Amino acid sequence: MEIQNYCGTSRIAGCSFSVYPMADRFKEIILEALKTVDTSKVWIETDDVTTLVRGRIPHVFDVTSAIFIAAAKDGDHVVFNGTYSIGCPGDSTGDVYMAEDETKLNISNVKNIKLETASKFSLYPLGGGNYMDTIYSQIENMRSRGITVSKSHYSTRLDGNAFDVFDGLEHVFTETEASGSSHTVMTVTMSANSPSAKGVIK
């Protein structure tokens, strides 16, 4: 299959992600989380490596955050690893979902769940613009949302409630795309209920 070497014109967003429950019943945790999340406003496909969701930015973040929160809300140690992208070369499959409105289907089920998380994210505005200014301004935006921001090699660390962190990440992604980046990529690793954070592992 030939891959075209230019940024796509479709503004469909997507996230390729995996959720890793650190528990014996990992299969049940994942399946139960997927069962409780409404994915009707996104294109979704799962294989033996990752799950891919695609659609409008609000719905991509709505679904990915809801799946992670649903998997971790009962206290199991769960890790989320995802790559968000918009403007990827040749990206068009699932464009029908761009007709959806911006009403999020899962927000009412997760916004009041308190789940402390530690996250690291990296932002890559590709295809134009002063990307460092964009990155710095969006990191400051995170602080304004009450999220603890700290430096980390090759990434930025975020500590706070899972819903608030995902909400901040969505804003970062949206603002970066709106600033003129024709192709924006953001990688996120998030952990909840880690025994390391509780002092169990030194």
Explain what this protein looks like in three dimensions.
It comes from Terribacillus saccharophilus. GO terms for molecular function: thiamine binding. This is YKOF-related Family. The chain has helices spanning 26-36, 57-72, 107-110, 131-144, 162-178, and strands at residues 13-21, 43-46, 51-55, 78-86, 116-126, 148-152, 155-161, 183-192. With 202 residues, it is of the alpha+beta class. The chain has a single domain (13-89, 113-192), classed as 2-Layer Sandwich (Alpha-Beta Plaits). Strands 2-3-1-4-8-5-7-6 form an eight-stranded antiparallel sheet. Strand 6 and strand 7 form a beta hairpin. The longest helix is centred in the last third of the chain and has 17 residues, at 162-178. The radius of gyration is 17 Å and the shape is globular. Residues 1-8 have low confidence and may be disordered.
Which strand-content bin applies to the residues? 25-35%
Helicity range: 25-40%
Order of the strands making up the biggest sheet: 2-3-1-4-8-5-7-6
Q: What is the tally of helical segments?
A: 5
Quaternary structure annotation: single chain
Structural class by sheet pairing and helices: alpha+beta
The average pLDDT score comes to 87
Rounded to the nearest angstrom, the distance between the terminal CA atoms is 48 Å
- Identify the CATH architecture: 2-Layer Sandwich
**Silhouette:** globular
Outline the low-pLDDT stretches. 1-8
Protein name: YKOF-related Family
Organism: Terribacillus saccharophilus
InterPro entries: HMP/thiamine-bd, MTH1187/YkoF-like, Thiamin/HMP-bd_put_YkoF
GO molecular function, one term: thiamine binding
